[in-house]
Amino acid sequence: MVPFAQVALPLPLRHTFTYRVPDALSARIEPGVPVEVPFRGRARRGVVVEWTATSDREDALDLSAVLGPPLFDAHLLQLTRWMAEYYLAPWGEVLAAALPGGPSGMPASRGRKSAAGIEERALALPLPEPFTLTPEQRAASHALETSVRRRAFAPILLHGVTASGKTEVYLRGAAAARDTGGQTLVLVPEVALGSQLVREFRRRFRNRVGVLHSYLGIAERRRNWELARRGALDVVVGARSAVFAPLPKLRLIVVDEEHEPAYKQNEQLRYHGRDTAVRRAQMLGIAVVLGSATPSLESLANARRGKYAHLVLSRRVDRRPMPQVRIVDLRREGGTSQLSLPLRAALAERLARGEQVVLFLNRRGHSHHVQCRACGFVPRCPWCDIALTLHLVPRAWRCHYCDHDAAAAAACPACGSRLLRYSGAGTQRAERELRATVPAARLLRLDTDVARAGGTDEVLERFGSGAADVLLGTQMVAKGLDFPRVTLVGVLDADVALHLPDFRAAERTFQLLVQVSGRSGRGSRAGEVLVQTSTPEHPAIAAAVAHDDRAFVERELAERKEAGYPPHARLVTLLFSGADALEVERAATRAAEMLRQEAESAGVRVLGPAPQPLARLRGKHRWHVMLKGPRGAEVRRHAARALDWAESTERPRGVRVVADVDPVDVL
Ligand SMILES: [Zn+2]
Ligand SMILES: [Zn+2]
């Protein structure tokens, strides 16, 4: 009997392929090995996921080559299979994404590089006691250590205000894992080598910590990958894709800043790193701790339902007070300056005292919402409760969930003012204004342009060393930075995030304001936060100012329930893209029509089709259809029908269709 192998190929087809295994190769075939196979007249690389003694595919072709030892163990095959099923993605694409360096990490025919010559000195280090734990830290550490030792699935939400010492709790959990011979995986939204978290883990675990960093280059990442796989690392720290790190003795997973949208990958394989981490912990029967000062509503809902344990750190370490937050009402300021008079005054005061200032420009992606500068009015969709987006051709305000449209007014429908503006000025304009206002201040800018050029660590390092007075940046400055000399944080426009056409806009705004406020007053001097806004009465802003997350969460959960959004419902968006605008629109329309009747009779609503806010991106036209319903499996089942159609022989020509399960960023 000739055995057959099931091979997952990184192609946009959601099934595996059967190949015959030649006798000469059969000794080296096992699940997880990379292979080369002929596919439609071309040589393709894929991964064997299963092998069987028989097959009904009599015409199966022969496997061409085995490219090396297994890349995936049984557990990682199981995890990636779950992802393929859950995220409605081809298994081969999931496996490709799981390699260090992504799809390009697949070994070539000549075989993979050996990892010889890597030192494996185990250092037994005592755990230093840098300071006394707060009673809350002690209780949380104890609970986490107990869960790690118990070796059963234990999802834990660690809900600690900014500067409450969550890192110390993670470190103790990791030490408990290490002491029982286990490994810890630490996921962070973005790896900043200079971040406090990486520094602390390195200090405690020395060379038993491996950092998986995209700037490291593929050789270095593969080396750490190999060390992790051989059990030579106690702790692996990395961003989203580190969730795939091969850790044979994994005992604890930490997801820091679990609410961060950066955990969701929005291209190629659309998966959520946090949710995948929780599933991985469940499969292995281990502890997973999700840490945040501002947990996502999904995680809070899980804690309320008793699915997650809920550990709370309500106080800052060293009895430091929470920063004082003040509102600057832009409606009373007039003009279009990004620096109000109160902010200018506060800025001058800090500079005179030699203290540092962080200025935050809340700009994410492209903002196209309209807001009245006089009264704060923003047009919203009456059906979907999200901000309407300005479209230029034809000129209209449109909802990009359901395609509802309204005539674009020249004057404010609420107050008649003609100060309707299109929101969202960039960091560069803010920088020019700052330089003109405080010419003597030493200024650093941190935004996506700087990050793309690889300058993030350098900017943070210079600011941390006191080489600058003011750090101006986008949401990157809100994340986990710890600069004791910062006593003023200014939020230049809190409304930009609030009116993104996204049902999570209020949650995101609340989180950003709390996080960015948390950068102030982390040292011995008290901190202050100034929030510039045209809608100070909005619940997200009012709650952030009052440090009252309970009030905000209650209200927001009730509104999500009312409008049928997560965590009370599940969403899948189907994304259509292609070069021909008409074909893309036609495919989206056909898919929506095909799904609607059967889906809606099963309680799944089909919204759209609608053009995406950035309908044309890199020469591609983009439309989407949104499915929502109370049960995730049911919503995914209907989305899968559309994908089956898109993969069938009657598929639309020149249009790519992909699913985004549990979408996070719908721009
Ligand atoms: Zn108005
Ligand atoms: Zn709508």
TrEMBL record:
Domain Helicase ATP-binding, residue spans: 147-313
Binding-site residues for Zn(2+) 2, renumbered to this chain: 381, 384, 399, 402
Catalytic activity: Couples ATP hydrolysis with the unwinding of duplex DNA by translocating in the 3'-5' direction; ATP + H2O = ADP + phosphate + H(+)
GO molecular function, one term: zinc ion binding
SUPFAM superfamilies: P-loop containing nucleoside triphosphate hydrolases (SSF52540)
InterPro entries: DEAD/DEAH_box_helicase_dom, Helicase_ATP-bd, Helicase_C-like, P-loop_NTPase, PriA, PriA_3primeBD, PriA_3primeBD_sf, PriA_C
Enzyme Commission number: 5.6.2.4
The keyword Transmembrane belongs to this UniProt entry's keyword annotation: no
Biological process terms in GO annotation: DNA recombination; DNA replication initiation; DNA replication, synthesis of primer; double-strand break repair
Free-text cofactor note: Binds 2 zinc ions per subunit.
Chain positions recorded as Zn(2+) 1 binding sites: 372, 375, 412, 415
GO cellular component entries: primosome complex
Keyword tags: ATP-binding, DNA replication, DNA-binding, Helicase, Hydrolase, Isomerase, Metal-binding, Nucleotide-binding, Primosome, Zinc
Known function: Initiates the restart of stalled replication forks, which reloads the replicative helicase on sites other than the origin of replication. Recognizes and binds to abandoned replication forks and remodels them to uncover a helicase loading site. Promotes assembly of the primosome at these replication forks.
Record-linked PANTHER family: PRIMOSOMAL PROTEIN N (PTHR30580:SF0)
Name of the protein this chain belongs to: Replication restart protein PriA
Gene: priA
